[in-house]
Specification:
Number of strands: 14
CATH topology: Purple Acid Phosphatase, chain A, domain 2
CATH architecture: 4-Layer Sandwich
Order of helices and strands: EHHEHEHHEHEEEHEHEEEEEE
Strand order of the largest sheet: 1-4-3-2-12-13-14
Helix content: 10-25%
Structural class: alpha/beta
CATH class: Alpha Beta
Distance between the termini: 33 Å
Strand content: 25-35%
CATH superfamily: Metallo-dependent phosphatases
Largest sheet: 7 strands, mixed
Radius of gyration: 18 Å
Shape: globular
């Protein structure tokens, strides 16, 4: 269920700050970058697995204060110059079982980003909950299209279309699913826009052959890959869920696992966010590690697009 949060005006930002005084810590020297910085329409900031709790003081069992990591990531995104055309958040926005309170906190953490003129688009993971998400974040964005109980969104960039799909199958159950209706819509939309290079993003990893035979990612991964692999305008698939930073290829199709901004599952993995620079022929993804002194900080994945033929 991708949700679009438009930028907010300076007046609305100040009204929000007054209304939420005591709840949101606001920097006294915050600059509205829509007034001071240009926008790069080919640049996108990426977050995944933010796992925000209602309580900003929540500390995960690993010792990580997830709110602090979230705020560090948004501060670094705000510091980009030129600023990105959008911030995309790829699921598991909430900590455990998505609640309205968690999503209110999640949105509060994006206030300065939106006040800087940067729109935010978010999709859901297995720790999210559709009804609670909708209560906290109503939307009438015309770019959001209903697909039965799922919602999809397309972010159109100069060089490509960025599809945000919904893989939430059931809250608090690990595997995800796109479903027949969403896959049929995807195939039809891709065929309608066959001349547009495309990136597809959703929460669960599309692993068609898990090593241990237990599906922990996308249960209909083979059906999804059957849609995108022969449609060569699909250049890359981005996902989260596993709290890893990794990449691989399937017949020239790039698959990239976005890192969590919160806590990692495996020692040595970075927490962080990703700066995406798109072009006609590919995309560069740069990791910005929140984990202090991580050896992969500023690592760049240089993705070259496969041919359409």
């Amino acid at each position: 269920m991708p949700i679009s949060l438009p930028p907010i005006s300076r007046r609305r930002f100040l009204q929000t700050a007054v209304a939420g005084a005591g709840a949101i810590a606001l920097g006294s020297r915050f600059a509205f970058s829509d007034e001071t910085k240009s926008v790069d329409p080919s640049r996108i900031a990426l977050l995944s697995d933010t796992h925000i709790a209602p309580n900003r003081d929540y500390v995960h069992k690993t010792g990580i204060r997830v709110w602090d990591q979230y705020q560090q990531a948004t501060r670094e995104i705000l510091a980009l110059s030129p600023k990105p055309a959008a911030l995309l958040v790829n699921g598991d926005c909430a900590l455990d079982h998505g609640t309205t309170e968690a999503y209110v906190t999640f949105v509060d953490g994006l206030t300065q980003v939106r006040a800087a003129g940067i729109p935010v688009h978010a999709t859901l993971g297995n720790h999210d909950e559709r009804v609670e998400f909708a209560k906290a974040i109503p939307t009438d964005d015309a770019r959001v299209k209903e697909i039965t109980d799922h919602t999809v969104s397309i972010v159109r960039l100069p060089h490509l279309d960025w599809y945000m799909l919904d893989s939430l199958r059931k809250t608090k159950e690990t595997p995800g699913e796109l479903g027949a209706a969403q896959l049929a819509w995807l195939a039809k939309s891709l065929d309608t826009h066959a001349d547009r290079p495309t990136v597809v993003m959703f929460h669960h990893q599309p692993d068609p052959h898990p090593a241990d035979g237990k599906i922990k990612g996308l249960v209909d991964a083979p059906a999804f890959l059957k849609v995108v692999q022969p449609r060569k305008q699909v250049k890359a698939v981005l996902f989260g869920h596993t709290h890893q930073w990794a990449r691989y290829e399937l017949e020239g199709l790039h698959l990239v696992n976005l890192p969590t901004s919160a806590y990692v599952f495996q020692a040595g993995q970075p927490a962080g966010w990703v700066d995406a620079q798109t072009s006609e022929n590919g995309m560069k993804l740069q990791l910005h590690a929140i984990t202090p002194n991580h050896p992969k900080d500023k690592e760049v994945l240089d993705l070259k697009w496969r041919d359409n033929a």
